[in-house]
Amino acid sequence: MTERKSFDPATTEMLEVAQARGVSTPFDRAETTKPCPIGHDGSCCKHCFMGPCRLVGKTTMGVCGATAETVVARNLGRAVAAGSAAHGDHGRNMALTLLAVAHGEAKDYQIKDERKLYRVAGFLGVDTAGRSIQEIGADVAQVALDEFGRQEGELIYLKRAPQKRQELWRRTNLAPRGIDREVVEMMHRTNMGTDQDAEHILHHALRCALADGWGGSMLATDLSDILFGTPGPLAAPGNYGVLKEDEVNIVIHGHEPTVPEAMVVMVNDPELIEYARSKGAKGINLVGMCCSGNEILMRHGIPVAGNFLQQELAIATGAVEAMVVDYQCIMQGVVQAARQFHTQVITTSPKVKIEGAMHIEFDERRANELAKLIIRTAIDAFPNRKEVQIPDVRDQVVVGFSHEYLAYMQGGFYRESFRPLNDNIRNGRIRGAAGVVGCNNAHTTHDLSHISIVKELIKNDVVVVTTGCDAVACAKYGLLTPEVMEYAGPGLREVCETIGVPPVLHMGSCVDNTRILTVLTQMATEGGLGEDISDLPAVGIAPEWMSEKALGIGCYFVASGCYVLFGVGSPVAGSPEVQRLISQGWEELCGGKLEFEPDWRKIVEKALAHIDAKRAALKLDAYDPRRYARSQTYLPGDYASWEDFRAGKYSLKG
Ligand code: NFS
């Protein structure tokens, strides 16, 4: 029974433990709380109190006369606005932190990456000549903050996109103004009785999403790197096995790197370690979860305990003294689960409280002092531990492939480039590229689609970059190690072995999807693969999405020129016209399109077909793995013969 709920052996084991201990999990709740089929399809309009109007069967209009197209488009638009707001607000927090650091008000943090500060100052037009790091940092933070409230013109970072893309955005009126302005306008337009033309609503959804991708999220990534360091490759372990039976375990969960960074420092404080010993623990063990986990995993090698659907099950091990959460993707169920154990759930963001959780409000001006208080609170819980059961499942991962590092590894410090990658795509060793990202969803087998899609793509010589919960899924199955070469197609394997990287590259948390935008821009401008992102043989995939943030991300990749495929199910199923608009319609508008496809095998087929079509449009040789390396003996996928393979007869195993 539990096997179908998760593909992950550690999660499966913990599901049984949770059941025996009476802990409620999202897996169980998904069985009892089925989605409302009308809302699921995007056909429920609850934007005014004459409704909710459910457009189903003979009901083709709301009380106000709104059609299915309008209702479905509005719902998608609002989801994109909410996702963009979440990322944008996170970016703003990072700007405020940088400002406090530059002003000397947050003394426990420093500007760690001065090189990146100079680079970002260059992008933002901040003068650097003869100025101190603090002065530059303060101006960078201020210009970044001003981007949120920009009323006219366009976001400065749009200039980081390929020239052709920028021109397209201006021509089609997609170039976003201030981040806050686009989110507010999306909310306004979808308010009762306002924008009632599906195509027009969806157009603004793209503009709003662009303000997230090339605005809020990209700033969040850049400012985090300036403050906490730009990631480079390092190794770490992953999955529940990283929890330690004889130490105080603290799980860091959420998205903002500020608290985790202070915790990483304070966890080594000799006084605290001594305090932990005085309570009978051998030490203090910090582990991550979801995107906060990704942030400290790629910057410090802090082990990652799991992804989105694993949060309550981590508590059910009985080994977690504290789960420290900031914002986003935190299930309220963790507090309920914690009540059955000795675990303290501690909220730290001024924006977030959860009933029943302890609130220790974080203030970057007192970072280390507050981190210390949080750790002491966790230590105090240790003596109350009862029975502990930690699955003995642990994988080794290599993470931290920032776009800076990718450029560096392809040419060194002074000659960084994307030439080797482009050349190998041109000559067909690498068939194309895919970003596989996003959440888990309790209505589909945990991690199954993530892992199956990534494995199938690399087998077909498609290089994969990953972030968010897909990255954690890959981490748990050893897909982020050089050993994974055995799954890779012959050409991809040869290239990866030459450069010395795994075929699946961890690029960070969900806001770090913007690192992928930068990689795509570098590929498009390096030469040999067209002139725009929409020319590249590349796709974006979110196999197990659930969050509004994922829809925002999907839409900014579409507006940037990518074919984006989402698994699980469609939030626009209620309107064939909206489905057409976001697919063919958007492709005509901006060269990218969004499609929802629940079957992971079909996602792979569509992705490969798209990559091959883009290769053909670029007049590159048709992909043929027999030309390279072990290709004489190696048959990718589960093809019966080379003939089947050449004929494109896919027969992928589940
Ligand atoms: Ni992205 Fe990260 Fe995970 Fe999905 Fe949630 S943690 S920001 S939204 S669930 S990938």
- What amount of the residues lies in strands? 5-15%
Proportion of helical residues: 40-55%
Largest sheet: 6 strands, parallel
Q: Report the CATH architecture of the largest domain.
A: 3-Layer(aba) Sandwich
The CATH topology label of the largest domain is Rossmann fold
| Neighbour order of strands in the largest sheet | 6-5-4-7-8-9
The end-to-end distance, rounded to whole angstroms, is 17 Å
> How would you classify the quaternary structure?
single chain
Number of helices: 26
Helix vs. strand class:
alpha/beta
Describe this structure in words.
With 654 residues, the protein is α/β, with parallel strands linked by helices. It folds into four domains: 42 residues, no CATH class; 184 residues, Substrate Binding Domain Of Dnak, Chain:A, Domain 2; 151 residues, 3-Layer(aba) Sandwich (Rossmann fold), CATH 3.40.50; 222 residues, Rossmann fold (3-Layer(aba) Sandwich). It is built from 26 helices and 16 strands. The strands form four sheets. It has a six-stranded parallel sheet with strand order 6-5-4-7-8-9, sandwiched between helices. A six-stranded parallel sheet has the order 13-12-11-14-15-16, with helices on both faces. Helix 13 links the parallel strand 5 and strand 6. Helix 6 packs across helix 7 and helix 6 packs antiparallel against helix 10. The radius of gyration is 24 Å and the shape is globular. The chain starts with a helix and ends in an 8-residue tail after the last helix. 58% of the residues are buried. FE(4)-NI(1)-S(5) cluster binds next to helix 13, helix 20 and helix 23.
